[in-house]
Specification:
mainly alpha; 5 helices; 0% strand; elongated
Amino acid sequence: MSELVTTTYSTEFIERVKEYAVLGLYPIQIAEKLELTGSERVRFLFDINSKLHPLRSAYLIARAHWEEDKEAALTTLATAGDIDALELSAKVEWRKGIENIKNELFDL
């Protein structure tokens, strides 16, 4: 039986990944920015998408900050009376509700 190999990344590497995640980049875009190629790229993409790998946790936390920043900016604009921001804010909330229901019903 083969064991699952866990890749360990340096603190500096994880910090760079988090910096790109805060900017809203997806894992494939981060791999491009980090200039990962070949097996190194494949391993990174596997790890960042693996539910059990700490790299994924770091990525998701940083990505959540990006989402929060977007929502805060949108709310600020909507509160200031920007009609487009108000409309978009309503659509975002509606979409979030749908995503929450999907998560509850189908664990997606």
